[in-house]
Amino acid sequence: xxxxxxxxxxxxxxxxxxxxxxxxxxxxxxxxxxxxxxxxxxxxxxxxxxxxxxxxxxxxxxxxxxxxxxxxxxxxxxxxxxxxxxxxxxxxxxxxxxxxxxxxxxxxxxxxxxxxxxxxxxxxxxxxxxxxxxxxxxxxxxxxxxxxxxxxxxxxxxxxxxxxxxxxxxxxxxxxxxxxxxxxxxxxxxxxxxxxxxxxxxxxxxxxxxxxxxxxxxxxxxxxxxxxxxxxxxxxxxxxxxxxxxxxxxxxxxxxxxxxxxxxxxxxxxxxxxxxxxxxxxxxxxxxxxxxxxxxxxxxxxxxxxxxxxxxxxxxxxxxxxxxxxxxxxxxxxxxxxxxxxxxxxxxxxxxxxxxxxxxxxxxxxxxxxxxxxxxxxxxxxxxxxxxxxxxxxxxxxxxxxxxxxxxxxxxxxxxxxxxxxxxxxxxxxxxxxxxxxxxxxxxxxxxxxxxxxxxxxxxxxxxxxxxxxxxxxxxxxxxxxxxxxxxxxxxxxxxxxxxxxxxxxxxxxxxxxxxxxxxxxxxxxxxxxxxxxxxxxxxxxxxxxxxxxxxxxxxxxxxxxxxxxxxxxxxxxxxxxxxxxxxxxxxxxxxxxxxxxxxxxxxxxxxxxxxxxxxxxxxxxxxxxxxxxxxxxxxxxxxxxxxxxxxxxxxxxxxxxxxxxxxxxxxxxxxxxxxxxxxxxxxxxxxxxxxxxxxxxxxxxxxxxxxxxxxxxxxxxxxxxxxxxxxxxxxxxxxxxxxxxxxxxxxxxxxxxxxxxxxxxxxxxxxxxxxxxxxxxxxxxxxxxxxxxxxxxxxxxxxxxxxxxxxxxxxxxxxxxxxxxxxxxxxxxxxxxxxxxxxxxxxxxxxxxxxxxxxxxxxxxxxxxxxxxxxxxxxxxxxxxxxxxxxxxxxxxxxxxxxxxxxxxxxxxxxxxxxxxxxxxxxxxxxxxxxxxxxxxxxxxxxxxxxxxxxxxxxxxxxxxxxxxxxxxxxxxxxxxxxxxxxxxxxxxxxxxxxxxxxxxxxxxxxxxxxxxxxxxxxxxxxxxxxxxxxxxxxxxxxxxxxxxxxxxxxxxxxxxxxxxxxxx
Length: 1066
Known about the structure:
By secondary structure, the protein is an alpha/beta fold. The protein is built from 39 helices and 35 strands. The strands form nine sheets. Strands 1, 2, 5, 6, 7, 8, 11, 12 and 15 form a nine-stranded mixed sheet that branches. It has an eight-stranded mixed sheet with strand order 31-30-32-29-33-34-28-35.
C-alpha cells in the first residue's frame, strides 16, 4: 500500500515556504511516510529547471531525488525513497453564463518533457512566470482541451471542489454541475479532489458525483504540511499505475482525510466579526453579517447542503474507505497542552520519528504499547482517541482553520503525558482493570455510517451539549446588543464563561479582542480560572477580565497618565483641607459621600446640602462647588486620582476621542443590573467603538440603588439602542439549578416575581426562628451550626447521633448573612465562644482605622516609590510626624529595609514582622488586617484588593489562620453572586429588613430585592431568624412556604454521663 500526496506547491508560488525545494520535500516525505509526492508548479520555468537539476528518472513517469541532494536526518528511519510525479495547479478566472468563474485545476503529467510542451502552450495565453500557480483567463473547458490535444496521457482533476472562492462548486464563483463547466468534455473528467473542508460522506450526498473517484491531497505550501490529506494506493509504482487509479479507480483503496471541520471553509461565517454560522443561520440573516452588514462567506457545509439530494449520514454503496487523521505535531500539542509549533512539541515529534519511524505509521499502525514506551501514556492515549474518532471538533470558517480537541484542559493539567510509572509497566491509567477492543484504523464502506454518526455526536458534545436551550441561545446568539435576563441559580456565570469560550473556539475571536467586566475581583478571578480550566492558560492569554475600576486603571496607565491612586485616608485629608478652606458646614466624610453621588450621576444629591428653604442652601451649594474645585486641584497637584476619578478620567478620554482599543471589540458586562449612571456612560462609550455588546444580569436582584443602580437599566439600554436604530435582542434564563423547590417557593412568594423552574430535589422546609433578643438569635445560630456539623464536642456528637437523621455539614458549607457588618459582630462573638471557625467577608469598618490606613499607605509607597503622598500620609498616621526633610529621610530609610521583604515574603510573615517592628501587635484593627493575609500569595496582590476590592473580595479569618473549613459571615449585599448549601439570614425583623435609616428613606422594593438575593443564596437549607416583629416582607407567607418556630432554651438531658474521681471512690 502506497501513500500519495499529489497536490503541493513549490517556493515559486505565493505564500509558500522557501523550503519548498526538492530536497526538503524529499526529506519531509520520508519523515511522513509518503511514497509518491507531486512536484507542484510544473508551469514555472525556474522550478522546472530546478527539478531537472535535482531529480533523476525512476520508474516509468516517476522521478527520485539525486543522491547528492538528499538530506540525511536522524529523525528518518528506514530506506524508503519517495517518488516524484510531475504536477501543477492552474487558476482559471473567466466569465461564463453572466458570472465570473474562478476555478482551480490539478494536473498530472507523465514527465518533464510534456510539462515543457504544455507550459509553452500556456505561455502564449498568459503570464506563467510570476507565480507557480499561474492565473489565466482561460475557461476550464479550453484548458482541458489544450491538455487533451497536447498530452492525451494527462490527468485533469478539478481541485478542492468546494472551496468558496476558487473551485468548481465554489459558493461565490463556481458552477452547480460538472457539465455546466466542462460541457462536451465532461466525459474526460474522472475524479475530483474533495479539499480539506469536506470528506467522502459529504460528497456522497450529491448523487451527481457518484461517477467520479474522490481523491484527497494536502495542497501543502510548506514541506511540513505534506500529508494533511493523501491517497491510499494499491498499484504498481509507475505513472500509468497512478493514472489508472485516478481515472478508473483501479488500486484507489481510499483516502486519508482531514476532519472536515478543521478545514478553513467548512462552515459559513465572517472572520472579521468572529461569526461562525450554520446554513440556516446564514439564510435567516439573508446572507449578510448581522454585526457589520457585509456579505457572509458561504462555507463548504452550506454549499454541499444546497447541491445535496441525499440525507446526512448517507453511505454510498461500494464507496472507498477513508481515515480521518490529524498531523502528529497537532496530536502531541493537544496531548501536552502546547502549540503544535512550540519547541517542546517539535522536540517530541522528532524523538518519536527517530524511535518509532514515519509519522503515518505512528498515527495508523504502530501498537499503543510501543508508542507509550517511546512518548508516554498521554500521547499514546491521544493517538488511540484519534484512531477511534473520539475527538471534539470545532469547525473552521471564512479562512480560519478549525480545531480538533483530543483532551480537555483539565485532563491535560492532571498529567504531563511524559514517561512515568504507568508507562514503564505498560499500563494505561484510565483503562486499568478494563479491556477495550481495538478499533479499526480505517473506515470500510459498511462501517462508514456508524463512524460518521459517532463523529457527529462528538462534534455536538462538550460544553454546548450540557447547556439548556436558553443558555445555548445566550451563548451562541449573534446580535449587536444582546441582553440576558438570568434569575438566581440559572447558570449566569456559566453562560457568560461559555459565551467567551464559544467566541474563542468557534467564532475564532482573538482573546485580545475581548473584555469582560465583573463587579468584584473575586468574580473576575473565578471567571479566568474557569476559562483556564476549559481552554488552558495559553489560549486565554490577552483576555481582559476585571472590574470597572481595574479596567479603567489599566486603560489610563496605557494612555500614559502619570498618577498614584489615593487611599481612603489621603482622600479624607485632602477633602478636609478643601472643606475647611471653602467654609462648608459639614465634615470631609459627608463631602466625599455627596461628591461621589454627584459624580455617579445620582439624582437628588443636592438635597444633602440642605433644605431648599432660602439662602442657606444656596450658600451651601456655592461652598460645595468651591470645595469640589479645591479638592480636584489638590489631588492634581499631588498627581493623585481617587476611586471615582478612575472612571471619570477614562470616560473623559473616550468622549474626547481616545480609542478604546481592540480590547473592547467584544464587550461583556456581568451583573448589569448593578451599574450606576457613570458606569452606564462608560459602557455606552465603549460600545460606540465595540463590535458587539453582551450584558447579563437580573432586574430582580438590583440592590445598589444607594449607589445609583437601577432595576430598569435593561429597559433603558433597550430604549437607547433602538433610538439609534440598532439591533437589540433579549434572552431569558428561567431554569434554576441551585435551590430546592422549598427555597425557591419561599423566595419567589416573598418577591412576587416570575417563578423560576426548580431542577433540584425536595429539601428541608424554610424556617423562621423567633428569638427573644438579637443575642438570642446569635446564640441559636451558633448552636444550630454546631448541630448541623453533627456536634463540635465528643459528648454533643454522641447526643446528636441518636437524634433524627440529618445531613451533616462541613463548616465551609454554611453562611450567615446579615444586613450590616456591625450586626454580624454578635454572631462572630457566639461562634468564637463555641469554637466554630469562621471567616468574615466584606469591607469592614476596621479598614478605616488610622494604623491600618497608615500601613496601607506605606505599602503603597513600597510598591510605588514615586508616590510621595502615600509616604507623607504613612508618616502622619503611623509615626505621628509632620512632613519635613528629616521625616522624609526616615521614611525613605524604612522603605529601603522593607521593599525587598515586601516583594519576597508571604503576606502573613510580612505583616507579622511589620506589626512587631512598629509595636502594633495589640492593635485590634491590625490583628483583623493580619487575619486577611491568609487568602493572598503576595503582598502586591493583597494591596490590590485593599485598594480596589469590594464586598466579597475582602475576607479575614476569625482568630486562627485558616482559609477553608470555616463558616462565612457576610452582609446580604456581599453575598451577591455566591451560593452555599446552608444559609442563615440573621435579623429578618421590622426595622432591619427593610432597614430604617434617619438619613435616607428606605427604598422598600430594593430592600425586598435584597432579601430575595439573600434567600436565593441557599442551595439546600434556609433558616431566617428574628427578634421582635418579623419583616413585613415575610408576613404574607403561609406555613407551607415558611415554617415558623420559636427558639426555646434546650434542657440538656444526661444521655451520656462522665464519672468523677469521687464516684470512683464509692
